[in-house]
Amino acid sequence: MPLSHGRPYLAIPGPSVMPDRVLQAMHRPAPNIYTGALVEMVAGMVPDLKAVARTDGHVASYITNGHGAWEAALANTCAPGDKVLVLSTGRFGQGWAETARRMGVEVEVIEFGKRDTIDLNAAEDRLRRDPGHAIKAVLAVHVDTSSSVRNDIAGLRAAIDAAGHPALFMVDCVASLGCERFEMDAWGVDVMVSASQKGLMTPPGLGFVYFSEKAAAVRAAMERVSIYWDWTQRADPEQFYQFFGGTAPTHHLYGLREALTMLVHEEGVAAAWARHAKLARAIWSAMEAWADGGPMELNIQDRALRSHAVTAVRIGAPNGTALRDWLSESAGVTLGIGLGMAPPDDPAWHGFFRIGHMGHVNAHMVLGVLGTIEAGLVHLRIPHGPGALSAAAKEIAA
Fold this sequence. Notes:
By secondary structure, the protein is of the alpha/beta class. It has two domains: 9-16 and 268-397, Aspartate Aminotransferase, domain 1, CATH 3.90.1150; 31-266, Aspartate Aminotransferase, domain 2 (3-Layer(aba) Sandwich). It is 40% helix and 15% strand. It has 13 helices and twelve strands. It has a seven-stranded mixed sheet with strand order 2-8-7-6-5-3-4, sandwiched between helices. Strands 9-10-12 form a three-stranded antiparallel sheet. The protein has a two-stranded parallel sheet with strand order 1-11. Helix 10 packs parallel to helix 12 (363-379) and helix 11 (319-331) packs across helix 12. The chain starts with 8 loop residues before the first strand and ends with a helix. 48% of the residues are buried. The mean pLDDT is 97.
């Protein structure tokens, strides 16, 4: 007998759970897109978007997803033939690299694997071996959603500075913005990209590119930039339509306004970081207990390197797919696939899953997911250690 009837829980690493308040804010007739309340609301959202990223710099908004934000960031800073250095720790570092290649940019990738962080010494050494400064930008992902590693962005800034290299520092924060501590100005990030569907608790469809004065100067020196991707007028529009390069994504904006009210003005960004950290520790504690007696293994071993927004898990084929299928069909919980851990046609692909715990998530949601996972382990007779739910509860109660 399936127990999946009732409200389903999408526990994947984006799109994340949307608050009822966000959904209700979107449920309204189409507005006037030329003057009035919508225009005033959007102008008022810009300071809140900057507050989430901890920056006094610029932000440009696009009707797109994270992949489009990658392209926008590159379009404003790199011409065909320019060179970038990509420091990859999973699928999304490779994805940003591929976007750059398709745009005619010369790409050098240093791959650190799916289970480790960026080696800061290796990054510094590579930049020191570029005395002519051929590398125009260094690209890194703060949290790689596939591997669930959290990279040291402040440390990477220090490595770039130690090498004395002038490259732009560009960071993907699609999975981390609003969930993990990120200090754009204090950490010296020149360009940051993010999107609406994870920590910002809004449906997929909005992408954001934040940029510093240094990056703005690089854009000003570009010979040409596609009119749609050009961030100049989006960040400082003379007319409202220029915020979005055309018609505004009206109902996404109503949802985002409500989400930013919840995140910035009610909970507070630092409090949201702390909430995500505590809930992540509860998940890790449960996973570590299950691992002590079965095949389950956290993809990232060092707690200091684990994301507070997503947890990637190894459990061996075919257990990953079997567990995901049972939870979806019998318990109403959807877990994420093991993205990028193995080719889809490799039997090993079925040995992974991910839990998204980002955005609108609280203690009972996390404990509920963990309880249904344990039910699945029992039902499927997958060996596992005892005490997982107790360990998670103790972490929540601490």
